[in-house]
Amino acid sequence: xxxxxxxxxxxxxxxxxxxxxxxxxxxxxxxxxxxxxxxxxxxxxxxxxxxxxxxxxxxxxxxxxxxxxxxxxxxxxxxxxxxxxxxxxxxxxxxxxxxxxxxxxxxxxxxxxxxxxxxxxxxxxxxxxxxxxxxxxxxxxxxxxxxxxxxxxxxxxxxxxxxxxxxxxxxxxxxxxxxxxxxxxxxxxxxxxxxxxxxxxxxxxxxxxxxxxxxxxxxxxxxxxxxxxxxxxxxxxxxxxxxxxxxxxxxxxxxxxxxxxxxxxxxxxxxxxxxxxxxxxxxxxxxxxxxxxxxxxxxxxxxxxxxxxxxxxxxxxxxxxxxxxxxxxxxxxxxxxxxxxxxxxxxxxxxxxxxxxxxxxxxxxxxxxxxxxxxxxxxxxxxxxxxxxxxxxxxxxxxxxxxxxxxxxxxxxxxxxxxxxxxxxxxxxxxxxxxxxxxxxxxxxxxxxxxxxxxxxxxxxxxxxxxxxxxx
Length: 472
Known about the structure:
Blueprint: H1 18-37, H2 45-52, H3 56-84, H4 86-106, H5 110-127, H6 129-138, H7 144-172, H8 181-184, H9 186-200, H10 214-233, H11 241-266, H12 281-310, H13 316-322, H14 324-345, H15 348-367, H16 373-400, H17 408-441, H18 443-464
């Protein structure tokens, strides 16, 4: 059964039962694949280097190419969905993602693998923005809590599934294929998702889609790429001067893009990112809060994984398995936050989640110095997972719920771009602090400084959240 086709100005379909549930599962599967692929390759890099004879630069591009192409194309992908149909762009993105994953898994050399990783990121940028927008179309505001709870549970689960799955696949040498199943596992998942999308996801598009200006799209994508490139490659290259120049150029480009969008709106042309979107207080203050709370998480996963290997001597597989308690706590907390707590407590859920995550980080600091670090890290990661789950579980609902449905595509693109950029910034800056201080003052000092930065940023997020509406 296929749901009725709707436009974004129509009331979202309700009471669609099993068909709508299958549509949601299809959307969640795509989000899971995209998020998992951002981290799944990290633990397989050394195996790839030996197998393909890869240089340090090509390894960096395997890691950096995916988030670079992804972040640069998110807003464009959202607006293309508004204009040409969200299901259509979602399916095209899925097909391209599955094909690029197959090509990555069959790559015969470093150049091929890097090129296909870039294509994979670009495909994800077509696919992912349609997820949040389709949820807003499928579910009325009063019903979105459960759907957003499932979506954000998937975010938390995928964040740690990547390292765990990557470690299990690489160490297990599945079918004698070494690292290649890290990518090939996406192919059957994408094929099933395509079939389900065609059968169960309704087509929707904006009644008044923004014109896709090649100049605007190039300016936006180029500006975001100029910011993301140094952030992702800078830590491995000692933060060269060209990186800061590129970041400055990217920021100037974003200012120029914003002025261009305001000018278009004043002249009566629908802009690519409507300034009216930021007149929704919950969206504007929520995005700022979400950015402050997302930056620490980028460093959280990276630094914790590095430290237990470097300081405690844990294996890659042991490190991956370490995250299981965290991954079990996140979906429980996220589902509760989205479906029950966020509608009742509003912004306070973000503040409570950040406070609990701070407590988990403090426990991590004491755990690594204890006589039984594995035991106490399990406790610390459960606490941190509950806090992280509350943040990701409520953020999407609190930030997007009051946005008019006709602006859902643009809002989804901005939200996803902020998330991707914030995580990259956190990984780049906090990871650099850890490695720099670790080399000069010892790993324990570097670890403590990195955790202190995370706590400080989470505290800033708690303060910014006070500007959000009390309830949604």
